[in-house]
Amino acid sequence: MARFEGVYVAIVTPFTDAYEVDYKRLHELCDWLITEGVHGLVPTGSLGEYATLTGEERAKLVETVVAAAKNRVPVVIGSGAPSTQQSVGWVRHAKEAGCSGVMALPPINYNPLEHEIIAHYEALSSVGLPIIAYNNPHDYKTDLTPDLLEKLAKIDNVVGVKEFSGDIRRVHDILAKTDLEVMIGVDDLSMEGPLVGATGWIAGVPNALPKEGVQLFQLAREGKVKEASALYRRLLPLFHYDAKPQLVQSIKYMMELAGFPVGPTRPPRLPLPADYCEGIKRAFEFAVNR
Fold first, then answer.
1. H or E stretch covering 83
2. Which of 20, 37, 42, 250 gives 10 a disulfide partner, CB atoms 3.0 to 4.6 angstroms apart?
3. Does the N-terminal peptide bond of residue 273 adopt cis geometry, omega within 30 degrees of 0?
């Protein structure tokens, strides 16, 4: 049985207009997402703007999410940091805070050799939390290929992979070569992934449309292709924004359209141009009005 099954939302970090972390709104966001049926929460990922947070903010943010979850759903933290030592520190903090697992990038500030990647995950594993390796070769230098994942899967606490390459063939290869759980990491493969064996989805757009995301994933896992396809085609124009560099601003704008505003993004991410917002608005209206 999969340990991290279903739709885990990579939650945004709410900010005030003064760019301070809005912990009250964060608590409300977690509670709303759980009420809407999501299966888990993933704070301090790329979508959560982890790189803009101070250490104090990041720790308090994780603790706020755990408190808001109240053991209703698992909390899996993103461990991205400039050094292995810092990443290990965030995994230790997550364990002490009561988190259920970690979504772990490989080394991010350096193009590592294979043995360095393995050593990085071995260090994270030593803390004792289950690890979902995060493969994002578009934004980082490392590609966790199926062959490399076969080696990482031999590390005690590496139990899954967030697959963000955008190549659905990877899911087949990973399942054939390893016993890892596969969690789709890019929204615009959220139907294809479960149809070919992915048991989870670490999702972006469901920050704004959680109920629809959960429904889509469940339909696909049940093999109800006709019903899933109808919903997927409504959501797909929105999902494409999750695979663009401006995904954080885009999803925060979607949340505003959904009636759940969470404030701005921290610079260097600035507000989107008006024409870009108009495209998101059209896609959002297409998704919710059909």
1. none
2. 42
3. no
Residues 23 and 79: their CA atoms lie apart, in Å, by 20
Query: How far is 268 from 204, CA to CA, in rounded Å?
Result: 20
pLDDT category at 138 given cuts 50, 70, 90 is confident
What predicted TM-score, i.e. pTM, was given to this entire model? 0.97
pLDDT tens, position by position, 75-130: 999 999 999 999 999 999 999 999 999 999 999 988 999 999 999 999 999 999 99
**Sign of CA pseudo-dihedral 38, 40, 44, 47:** negative
Nearest Cα to Cα of residue 242 among 164, 186, 162, 182: 186
Burial class (CB in 10 A: 0-12, 13-18, 19+), 275: exposed
Is 252 among the residues known to form the active site?
no
Q: What is the three-class DSSP state of 158?
A: strand
Tokens (6 digits) for 2: 């999969």
Is residue 85 exposed (0-12), middle (13-18) or buried (19+ Cβ within 10 Å)? exposed
Of the listed 8, 140, 162, 252, which one is catalytic? 162
Q: With CA atoms as reference, report the closest residue to 203 among 186, 189, 215.
A: 186
Q: Is 134 a catalytic residue?
A: yes
How far apart CA 12 and CA 25 sit, in angstroms, is 11
CA distance 96 to 93: 5
Element (H, E) at 103: strand 101-104
Residue 205 host element (H or E) = none
CA distance 58 to 270: 21
How is residue 217 written in tokens?
């994933």
* Domains by residue range for the chain, with CATH: 6-288 (3.20.20.70)
* Residue 185 identity (one-letter amino acid): G
* Nearest C-alpha neighbor of 240 from the set 186, 176, 174: 186
